[in-house]
Amino acid sequence: MNIPLNVYVAYFEKGILNFGYVIAQNNNRLEVINETGNYVVLPESRIILQSKERYLEIEPYQALPNFINQVNLFEEQFQESDFHFLKEKECTLQEIATELNLQTDVQIFALFKYLHNHPKEIHRKKNKYRLKTPEEITQYQLQLQQEEEERQFLQDVNAFFSGAELSRESQHKLYNALPELQTAKKHKKLKELILSKYPLLKPEEAILEFRKFCGETPEYIDPVIANAGIPIGFSSLLIEEKLLPWKATKPQAIAFSIDDESTKDFDDAISITKDGSFWHLTLYVSSVSERLNLEGALFAEAKKRVSSLYTANAVIPLFPFNHSEQELSLKKDSVRPVLALNLWLDENLAIQHYELSRMNITISENYSFNEIDQQIEQEPFSTLYRLSKLLAEKRGANSFSEKEHYYYYISASEQGLEVKCVDTQSPARKIVEELMILYNSYLADYAVKKNIPVIYRNINQFEDPKDNFLSLQAYLSTEPEFHPGIGANAYLHSTSPIRRYVDLINQLQISAILQGKNPPFSKEELEKDIPLLEKRIYDIREIAHKSERYWVLKFLQQNCQNIPLETYFRTSIDDYLNFELIPWGFIITAKSESYPKTERCKIVIYKVDPEQGIVWVDII
């Protein structure tokens, strides 16, 4: 392009169409007087239209407004019907001018301006124009609406920094966007706004500071979770969303739950009665599916979160606490709708028959594991324990190593951090474990027999013949397969719909069939969701592992520095050593000036960095 002097030109400045007059040229750069009378320097590539004629204007700053006025007057003469021919074909600007018999510069500039000012009706691509289809017009209107909503949203957030309150809709949109600012290249304008408010902080620090400022991330959340880019707090819109009403008919059974003493979100319950020589055992799971609007924000949020997350000092639930620990929880003295598995057992506790049903129950008690262990010789707990041992034996799960017998975790309380021990083989825990496996197995069996699309939990087995080592890997699928760990031809998860999204989906599908309805999701829709669900489940698991390691190091920092600790030396990678702390089994990554001479050794920790995940030790 070689643009001469003394011509009128058109160019864009920040998306706005401008007209100007070229008064000088130097090395492919033009000095242009614009319509405000100011001088701007532009590369020739910025010019999108130039006049055919040259205008030797003595006072261009006065002539330019006159030219623009003529363009505007001529533009007003165009009518939509003038461009009907663009419905059948694409045309360049010159081809349109020829079709309309436009020849002068004023007419050509007016045409260009008209086409530019009517994006709703006219499509432009690679300097060719055509009329938009009705579908494209609708899409454009939707885009304009979204842009206006985004502009208003950013305006609300900016005002929030100055003390104004966010609307429920803007707060919900903000809470949705904040985690994605840490993990995805989205919400560019929001990020720019936040960074402008914290000019002295790094981008990741500024985003986290704002998450705390707006209340989405509480101060007590550990840095691993806070920086992981997962949703933490719930917007007011989610907290205030009403659950669907349920049929509050007379309760058909009285049941009790068994869980950890700190549990508040009770998913499941049990009842067992004897009828002659037969036992009637019923396992109940809170019917979360019938309380949720599938088109509502709560359901969408659950899909995004996938699972509740439990850390040493916090619970990040799948649903807001007022739902997960109140309205959906099988709390003592509450009446709740449930999806029940009814089992009839003979005098030897062999299962003879099962049925699934939806019912209402009353919760008589929320027992802790310790309370049940202390009453294990009493009925009905002794019978439930006997049944759990028979079920475990049937699936070949009675053998376990000493290491599997106990596991340890860090818990935070007002008194500080402490190590807690869980006896995985306690009678109460075995009862719950086996009965929940039983519930999941029978729901999977029901789904197979009724051809219900659900998400099964299958197992891949990998065996290394050299090391005689068997590796198991779980995966989700809409196709049932034999589950070697359970010994069942199909298996799924459905006992924790308050805590896990996959369990909720399976409950939704099966409950629909029980009510004579079609399942809300097809097999194809579930298959499409599985890759994303598996990724999110994996991410949550990794975040939980890193958070656990953080709290282990915080515990060591507070309680175990400068004292000898028994360990097993496990591996070394580069300059780092991995030790297993005895008896807890916690794995720590350490730096040391010496190398362990034996597998079992003592170390002394003299420095801890929980956020980096490293300790510094002396080996003694």
What features would you highlight for this structure?
single chain; 27% strand; 5-stranded antiparallel sheet; alpha+beta; 5-stranded mixed sheet; 24 strands; 620 residues
Helix and strand content put the structural class at alpha+beta
**Major sheet summary line:** 5 strands, antiparallel
Number of E strands: 24
Number of helices: 17
Large-scale geometry:
elongated
Poorly predicted tracts of residues? none
Report how far apart the termini are: 78 Å
Average of per-residue pLDDT values: 94
Approximately how much beta-strand content do the residues carry? Answer: 25-35%
Main-sheet strand order equals: 4-3-2-1-5
Q: Roughly how much helix do the residues carry, as a percent range?
A: 25-40%
| Radius of gyration from CA coordinates | 34 Å
Characterization of the model:
- Helix content is 36%, strand content 27%.
- The longest helix is centred in the C-terminal third of the chain and has 37 residues, at 523-559.
- It has 17 helices and 24 strands.
- It is of the alpha+beta class and 620 residues long.
- Helix 4 (134-161) runs parallel beside helix 6.
- The chain has a 5-stranded antiparallel sheet. Strands 9-15-14-11-10 form a 5-stranded mixed sheet. Strands 20-21-22-24-23 form a 5-stranded mixed beta barrel.
- It is elongated and about 110 Å long.
Element layout with pairings:
Layout: E1 8-13, E2 16-26, E3 29-34, E4 39-43, E5 47-50, H1 60-75, E6 91-92, H2 93-99, H3 105-116, E7 122-125, E8 128-131, H4 134-161, H5 168-183, H6 188-197, H7 203-213, H8 223-226, H9 236-240, E9 253-259, E10 268-275, E11 278-286, H10 297-305, E12 309-310, E13 315-316, H11 321-327, E14 335-345, E15 351-368, H12 369-374, H13 381-394, H14 402-405, E16 406-413, E17 416-423, H15 427-450, E18 456-464, E19 469-477, H16 501-514, H17 523-559, E20 564-573, E21 576-581, E22 587-591, E23 600-609, E24 614-619
Parallel strand pairs: 9-15, 22-24
Antiparallel strand pairs: 1-2, 1-5, 2-3, 3-4, 6-8, 7-8, 10-11, 11-14, 12-13, 14-15, 16-17, 18-19, 20-21, 20-23, 21-22, 23-24
Helix pairs in contact: 1-3, 4-6, 6-7, 13-15
